[in-house]
Please model this.
Amino acid sequence: MSEISTYPQESKRRLSLTARQADWIEKILWYAVLISVAALLILPLYWMLATSLKTPRSTFMLPPEWIPSTLEWRNFTQVFEEVPFGRFLLNTLLLVVLNIIGELFAVTLVAYGFARLRFPGRSFLFLVMLSTLMIPYHVTLVPRFILFSKLGWVDTYLPLFVPAFTGSSFLIFLVRQYMMSIPLELDEAAYIDGASRFGVFWRIIVPLSKPALVLVVVFTFVGVWNDFLQPLIYLNDPQKFTVSLGLSFFQGARETNWNLLMAGSLMATIPPLLLFFFAQRQLIGGIAIEGLKG
Amino acid sequence: MLRQPSFIRSWRELSSSRRREAVAGYLFISPWLIGFIVFFAGPILASFFLSFTRWNIVGDPVWVGLDNFRTIFTNDPRFIKAVQVTLTYSIFYLPLEVILGIALALLMNRKVRGIGIFRTLYYMPSVVPQVAAALVWVWMLNARYGAINTLLGQVGVDGPNWLSNPGYVLPSLTMIALWGVGGSAIIYLAGLQNIPDVMYEAATVDGANPWQKLWYITLPLLTPTIFFKLVLGLIGVFQTFTPAYIAAGETGGPLQSGLFYMLYVYNRGFVSMRMGYASALAWILTVFILIITVVVLRSSRYWVHYEADRSRNR
Model:
């Protein structure tokens, strides 16, 4: 950028100065666009944060305060007193953990089966699995509810985590694709060294699939944390509610305390947001894989 | 049925070690296979059967033949409303999602200092849980105390009663959904980054301006990604539930202006417990989605550009 002053000729310098200025103006304009779009997209999050720190009086004030005059940190503890928010958090966390265990168990096994073992009907079954991705989820909603209610599972967590132990088709596909990229020579070398089939799976393929398994954890976490429809259908007892369901219940309960509701929403947003920051690289890589499917 | 003989034949042809491998293979995929039968294929067959019955979950299903379908198509104003709402929404939302998604991806693809921060900020809203996102927007759109009408007021516009005015419910829901457009933009960004720089360099040599590059290089080469997003987007739109439930309300809001199809299925199935009727509704939607998907797939050869295909033909 500073080489401009080394130009020998006066005329050339003037010319390049204007080019440089044009460059600068373009850059500033792009930053202006980038920043205004960012401001627009962050506004709702800011509004959530600002409201979560307002007193009930300043929540309903005209004109609304953009920056709360007093910061009411108490809101964040009051949420736990008004509704069993602590329970909601623990319940959701329990479901997240159970689902992650289930998906990791099923997805690694099934993906390995499809990626490495030869058996009659493999490609047909794989195609069946892929086609389940195209069938909208809601066709099974009613009959699944009937199934679970006949089993006496309504108002328990069983409908919300047992299916995870059979693996999600999308995650199986993702991990299978990843396992396909692991060189077969590694398996062969292990077999020569006397490893069993399960040994190869457990000591070679699973450890090497770690980046894909991180994605399984992230996607499952986000999916379970965000799920609303299934907890809504299956859970009746407020003590069993998840965070998402609890928040909507809180909204409908009575006259909405927006400051408390926003404090709750913010707390519901923080875990996936943190996860996103920590797993950003894998997540975006994984989404790129998802994008390449097309 | 046709597969079985060939399956048995191929099984007989296997050596004993290959047979052991095959048994191991079935064992490894058995979790999925069980899940597929119990949680997917079984329920789908059951719901097909149930759509010809009347059943409120207690007692036995009563076979009513095509009655559910007849009522749905000839005598159910709420079904028509739900179809209208969902279609209107998708007609506005899907194109906007593609356009804004690409625009945002183009911004994210600028090679300037600090672009990583902008990418993160743009993607962030799509990480917010759906319920929290819908709730903050209900509050943002509050007619008196909300941020949107306050901002509009500052530029002299008298903002509407967003979520209580039937005419503004769908625009509100579109806005809520578009807030998460960063999630699609990331996918478009991946598509953009797959476009070889050589193409742009060649175009620059030929004297193309930025608009021409966008129109003749970027967009055509992005069509596979657009296509992929469109198929997923279609399926997603027809399954919209949570934002409508939170922002418009369980029954679909004022004059049922936010009665999305899934919300209606939910109401029939889980509020009035009409399992047969809800199954019929779900099947109609599924067939509809499959038809639309096939149409989009078929249309793809007229507008989706695959670079790999072309090089293969050469």
Remarks:
- The CA atoms of residues 99 and 223 of chain B lie 12 Å apart.
- Chain B has a mean pLDDT of 88.
- The radius of gyration of chain B is 25 Å.
